[in-house]
Amino acid sequence: MKTNAFFLGKGGVGKTTMSAAFALSLARSGKRVLVASLDPAHNLGDVLSTKLSDIPQPVEKNLDALEIDLNKWVKRYLDESREELARTYSYNLTLNLNSFFDIMKYSPGTEEYAMLWAIEHIRCNLAGDYDVVVYDTPPTALSLRFLAMPAISNLWIAELTKLREKILSKRSTITRINPASVVASSCVDKADDKIYGKLGSIKRRLADLSSLFCKESYIAVVLNPDVLSVSEAMRIKDELDRIDMPLSGICLNKRGVSTTAWTLDRSLAGSPLFEFDFLPKGLHERDDLGSIDTKNLVADFLAAER
Ligand SMILES: Nc1ncnc2c1ncn2[C@@H]1O[C@H](COP(=O)(O)OP(=O)(O)OP(=O)(O)O)[C@@H](O)[C@H]1O
Ligand SMILES: [Mg+2]
């Protein structure tokens, strides 16, 4: 069995509904489940008829839920980076760290990193109390960016590590040739070098998240019987392929909602398909989620190899 599940898909297809129905069904079968919303525009609490916050709230027996506070994680990420840089470069008065941080908040990647560290927090500090963590995800673009982040970051961490090794080896040579050089007072040994150590620690954290996404997660794409959500599902599948993340299942939600012609592209045929009827009366409270028949999806999840 996998220990995490992610529901991805176009806006409005039913990611929150599917995550909640799936989590509820697993919990009612006896698994201890945490369902976590990563979407900054939260509505998981409404769907579960429970007021949520960024710490797990009990929903019913075996089921807790939380909504991550992305702004808090962005702030924490920036504060930690600021402290770290100030410590590491305290000797370098020419580097204007404050102006650097003013722009960093708006730099590409900040939200994605904040999201990764929020997931890491759930993995390291909360997941131990549960059998399964289910993630309701934000819009596709942000989800794909944070899922790809460990693989992308690993490439530049590897380059930075090589560069740091070169710097340390050059320092060592200079120190040997001229022990009186100013360089002799700086670090030459990998084991003592703060920056080398930091690169190693980021690498390990990213590798762990990569393993969470690629090996320990059941990744499902939700779509509706319409051309646009199918096209978005195909884009998601392409991106997942690029970062070696297997697509575990496809959830065709709102079956029967329209009579417009649509087809499931062959590129999606490799993953099992689960179908869920459109419920004309809508979903208004937690128990309505029981009308979404997740039996086959749950069985496939439970059978999936780690
Ligand atoms: N099978 C269904 N039958 C009827 N209504 C449904 C079904 N699934 C979802 N809905 C409704 O569709 C709407 C969108 O669902 P939901 O909020 O789960 O989608 P989402 O993909 O999470 O959206 P967003 O991208 O905005 O987060 C909601 O009003 C929900 O109640
Ligand atoms: Mg949603």
Helix-strand string: EHEHEEHHHEHHEHEEH
| Number of strand elements | 8
Name the strands of the widest sheet in spatial order. Answer: 3-4-2-5-1-6-7-8
Report on the biggest sheet. Answer: 8 strands, mixed
List low-confidence stretches.
Answer: none
Bound molecules: adenosine-5'-triphosphate, magnesium ion
Helix content: 40-55%
What Rg is obtained from the alpha carbons, in whole angstroms? Answer: 23 Å
Mass-distribution shape: elongated
Mean pLDDT across the residues is 90
In whole angstroms, the N-to-C terminal distance is 6 Å
Q: So how many helices?
A: 9
Percent range for β-strand residues: 5-15%
Structural class: alpha/beta
Could you walk me through the main structural features you see in this protein, from its secondary elements to its overall organization?
- This protein starts with a strand and ends with a helix.
- An eight-stranded mixed beta sheet has the order 3-4-2-5-1-6-7-8.
- A hairpin with a 2-residue loop joins strand 3 and strand 4.
- Helices cover 48% and strands 14% of the residues.
- The model has no long low-confidence stretch (mean pLDDT 90).
- With 306 residues, it is an alpha/beta fold.
- Bound molecules: adenosine-5'-triphosphate and magnesium ion.
- The site of magnesium ion has 5 residues, from helix 1.
